[in-house]
Design brief:
With 182 residues, the protein is α+β, with helices and mostly antiparallel strands. The protein folds into 2 domains: 54 residues, no CATH class; 102 residues, no CATH class. Helix content is 43%, strand content 15%. A hairpin with a 2-residue loop joins strand 3 and strand 4. The protein starts with a helix and ends in a 6-residue tail after the last helix. About 5% of the residues have low confidence.
Length: 182
């Protein structure tokens, strides 16, 4: 039975591939694409209402290709992990709803600001790093702050590995100040 469905699917694909191309159809590159998934056969309600076979709709059998989407999964889980672990979103400060809501909004503001600054200011190698790595590599650096002639100086050691990233970030922040708004 399953072999018959696979043969039917192959025949259908060969037939569709031999149809003439219409100009209103969109073409994408590459024109040959490999997909992986599981072929599943389902019986669903058909005409006249397409709602319920118990209410008299004719049963119709369809083949579905369930695609594996393993390449795109995980970004929302990563964002939740950053919010909960790096920005203390998993530890609410109170039993009061209003205080927890304010805490959550501040955490979301920090998350969005962190994401925007990483994408706009930091180099590509630093943009994918988590907050803990940024904190230990760029923020908590041993340095001396010197105020002289109404100017602020930060003195780092000469060969510090984060010096170039800090200078590039500062330059990009200064460029953001002159962008038109809206």
């Amino acid at each position: 039975m399953q072999k018959a469905w696979k043969t039917l699917l192959i025949m259908l694909l060969l037939t569709v591939g031999s149809l003439p191309a219409y100009p209103e159809c969109l073409n994408y590159e590459p024109s040959v694409v490999k997909v992986r998934g599981k072929l599943v056969i389902r019986t669903l309600p058909g005409p006249p209402e397409y709602e319920s076979m118990e209410k008299g709709d004719k049963p119709e059998t369809y083949c579905f290709l369930l695609l594996n989407h393993h390449k795109r999964c995980g970004k929302s889980e990563e964002a939740h992990a950053v919010m909960k672990e790096d920005l203390a979103g998993g530890t609410l400060p109170s039993g009061k709803f209003g205080k927890n809501a304010a805490w959550w909004w501040i955490m979301m503001l920090a998350f969005n600001l962190n994401t925007a600054m990483k994408n706009l200011v930091l180099q590509d190698s630093w943009a994918a790093k988590r907050m803990k790595a940024l904190r230990f590599s760029l923020i908590n650096l041993p340095a001396r702050v010197i105020e002289r002639s109404r100017r602020l100086f930060i003195r780092l050691t000469k060969g510090h590995p984060s010096l170039e990233a800090l200078l590039t970030a500062r330059k990009r922040i200064m460029e953001l100040a002159y962008l038109p708004s809206g």
